[in-house]
From TrEMBL:
InterPro entries: Azg-like (IPR045018), Azg-like_bact_archaea (IPR026033), NCS2 (IPR006043)
Family of this protein: Belongs to the nucleobase:cation symporter-2 (NCS2) (TC 2.A.40) family. Azg-like subfamily.
Protein name: AGZA family xanthine/uracil permease-like MFS transporter
First-listed, main subcellular location of the protein, grouped into a coarse class: membrane
Annotated Gene Ontology cellular component terms: plasma membrane
Annotated GO MF terms: purine nucleobase transmembrane transporter activity
Topology relative to the membrane: Multi-pass membrane protein
Compartments where located: Cell membrane
Keywords: Cell membrane, Membrane, Transmembrane, Transmembrane helix, Transport
Record-linked PANTHER family: XANTHINE/URACIL PERMEASE C887.17-RELATED, XANTHINE_URACIL PERMEASE C887.17-RELATED
Membrane-spanning parts: 12-31, 38-60, 86-110, 122-146, 158-178, 185-204, 230-253, 322-341, 376-400, 415-432
Organism of this sequence: Arcicella rosea
Top-level lineage group: Bacteria
Length: 433
């Protein structure tokens, strides 16, 4: 491992924080659509990011920031709560049980067995499919993509100042990202919010997307005491039902492979390997990720996970746990700024969702699209996640189609016993639903 200094680590931690702090705003904006109080979700987001980034730094000794995961918050809101019609308390319970299961797999090193059971093309496709899903949510929140009785969906009218403001914010944020400006996404959110202030005051009417309020940006104050109303609100008993096992499994599956791919990618970028050639302190890092999932259910947010944006701090020279500790500490003051952050409208966070979708599309290049027995299941998983508005459905049909195609083309050896077990649960979940 290359030498580093405390000053370098602290500066790297600041850089990682700037790259990940958008989650403080985006996570509450998504989970509030599940009926959860914005201020309380913000408090839970900050607390989880603070405690688990500290754990990553102190226990796993890795320069990786941990926070509520993008994709998991969308799955929580749009698949679990809105799609299945369960309460957010039950969904939080499912997050808790996913954390318990993930913790069990990590402690007994069963993760390796599970990882080998899932074909890599499906892992890559699911990651990209979640990216598309998140982008779709962003376009929908900005009212750029709207429903259409003839074509199902269509692009909104450009005579709408909300759409124009969103497009300016999206392109501006994209330029900042391309130019590798530190904190590009959060800068884009702030500028788009400022551009949205005249809506409802000078031009246009924001009531269509602002819960009846004619203005899009409304001042609610600067600081307030943290809202702990979601703490211990999870329904542990009500969530431990067979009908909800697919939800728990989807949380575990997505979180585990997201964290594993993050650790592997960051280890490759910074040469953070141990003597066996594995990502450094991988067991401790995965245990931290599991705790972040379990803690999410307790605190009142979607599962926490390692952030690939930590690469920004690593590029600045961060190699040790002090980088993650610094970033974690920087989250804490925002727990008192919920009134200020609640003024940010959905069209300001929409560009962040879309660009996160772009980042998550990278694995798609690793799929061998010329090998059709791999390509077809991967494609089904990729497109069904956004088309069905459900991460679970994309995962289920990806697995089932992979198994069926491999078996009937004489390649049954590519279907592991663990995958057969997963397929059985997939079929049961379809029957139940």
């Amino acid at each position: 491992m290359s030498p580093t200094t405390k000053k370098t680590e602290i500066l790297a931690g600041i850089s990682s924080f700037l790259a990940t702090m958008y989650i403080i705003i985006v996570n509450p904006s998504i989970l509030s659509q599940a009926g959860m109080p914005f201020d309380a979700v913000l408090t839970a987001t900050v607390l989880l990011s603070f405690f688990c980034s500290l754990m990553m730094g102190l226990y796993a000794k890795n320069p990786i920031v941990v926070a509520p995961g993008m994709g998991m918050n969308a799955f929580f809101t749009f698949t679990a709560v809105k799609g299945m019609g369960i309460s957010y308390q039950v969904a939080l319970g499912a997050v808790f049980w996913a954390g318990v299961f993930f913790l069990f797999l990590s402690i007994f090193n069963l993760r390796t067995y599970i990882v080998k059971a899932i074909p890599k093309p499906l892992r890559f496709a699911i990651s990209a499919g979640i990216g598309l899903f998140i982008s779709l949510i962003g376009f929908e929140n900005a009212h750029f993509i709207v429903s259409n009785p003839v074509t199902l969906v269509s692009i909104a009218s450009f005579h709408n100042p909300i759409v124009i403001t969103f497009l300016i914010g999206l392109l501006l944020t994209a330029v900042l990202v391309v130019r590798e400006v530190k904190g590009a996404i959060i800068i884009g959110i702030v500028i788009t919010t400022l551009l949205a202030i005249p809506i409802g005051r000078i031009w246009g009417d924001a009531s269509a997307i602002n819960f009846g309020q004619k203005t899009l940006v409304n001042w609610n104050g600067l600081i307030a005491s943290p809202d702990f109303s979601l703490l211990f609100q999870l329904d542990i008993i009500g969530s431990f039902k067979f009908a909800l096992f697919p939800i728990i499994f989807a949380f575990v599956f997505t979180d585990m492979f997201d964290s594993l791919s993050t650790f592997v990618g960051l280890a490759e970028a910074a040469y953070l390997y141990d003597e066996n050639g594995e990502p450094r302190n991988i067991k401790q890092s995965l245990l931290t990720d599991a705790v972040a999932t379990l803690l999410g259910g307790i605190l009142g947010t979607s599962p926490g996970t390692a952030y690939i944006e930590s690469a920004v701090g690593i590029e600045q020279g961060g190699r040790r746990g002090l980088t993650a500790i610094t970033a974690g500490i920087l989250f804490l003051p925002f727990m008192f700024l919920s009134p200020l952050l609640s003024v940010i409208p959905s069209i300001a966070t929409a560009p962040a969702l879309i660009l996160v979708g772009v980042f998550m599309m990278k694995p798609i290049t690793k799929i061998s699209w010329s090998k059709m027995d791999d390509a077809i299941p991967a494609f089904l998983a990729l497109v069904l996640i956004p088309f069905s508005y459900s991460i679970t459905q994309g995962i289920i049909w990806g697995f089932l189609s992979w198994t069926i195609i491999k078996v009937f083309t004489g390649k049954h050896k590519e279907v592991s016993m663990a995958l057969w077990v997963i397929d059985a649960f997939a079929v049961l979940s379809l029957i139940i639903s």
